[in-house]
Every structure is written in structure tokens, then in C-alpha cells.
């Protein structure tokens, strides 16, 4: 196996194991592995999956559209002007 697919932390000399475990859990949590493990523990119906994705979508889109490039801003203004003109 390659080193990139291996996940873990190195225990430093004199470091308590509890602290190393906390670092590992933090690392796994930021990568989304723990959430995926919890999700895969039980069967999720297609309807439940759709609802889960709908609940998380606003958060994803909020981050995606936080910053707009000048081209995106110009396009949004054009669309707003066209909408205002249309009866």
C-alpha cells in the first residue's frame, strides 16, 4: 500500500496515548471519515439519502457562492437587468 492511503499519527516520545488518539480522531473527523463510517453502519434508503443531501446542500452552496469573481458579478447584474425588463 502507498503511504498516501494510510491514515495515522505518529506517537511522539513521552506523549500520552490519549493525546495521540485525540489527534487521530481530529484528523479523521476533518477528512469526513468518521461521518462516513457512522453513515455506513446502517442501511440508508434512497429517500433518506435524498433528504440528507438536501439538508447539507445549503451549507455547501453558501461556501461555494461566498466569493464572486468580477465576471460572475457582471453576469448576475445582466440577469437582474433582464429580469427587470421582462414583463
From TrEMBL:
GO CC, sorted alphabetically, is: ribosome
Alphabetically sorted, this entry's keywords are: Ribonucleoprotein, Ribosomal protein
Tell me the leader sequence span: none
Region ranges (Disordered): 42-62, 68-87
**Keyword flag Ribonucleoprotein:** yes
* Composition skew (Basic residues), residue ranges: 49-62
- Give the InterPro entries listed for this entry: Ribosomal_bS21, Ribosomal_bS21_sf
Family stated for the protein in its record: Belongs to the bacterial ribosomal protein bS21 family.
> What protein name does the entry list?
Small ribosomal subunit protein bS21
Source organism per entry reads Haloferula helveola
Gene name for this UniProt entry: rpsU
Amino acid at each position: 500500500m502507498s503511504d498516501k492511503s494510510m491514515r495515522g499519527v505518529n506517537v511522539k516520545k513521552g506523549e500520552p496515548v490519549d493525546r495521540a488518539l485525540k489527534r487521530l480522531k481530529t484528523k479523521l473527523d476533518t477528512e469526513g471519515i468518521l461521518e462516513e463510517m457512522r453513515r455506513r453502519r446502517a442501511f440508508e434508503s434512497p429517500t433518506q439519502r435524498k433528504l440528507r443531501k438536501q439538508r447539507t446542500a445549503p451549507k455547501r452552496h453558501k461556501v461555494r457562492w461566498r466569493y464572486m469573481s468580477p465576471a460572475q458579478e457582471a453576469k448576475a447584474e445582466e440577469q437582474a437587468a433582464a429580469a427587470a425588463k421582462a414583463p
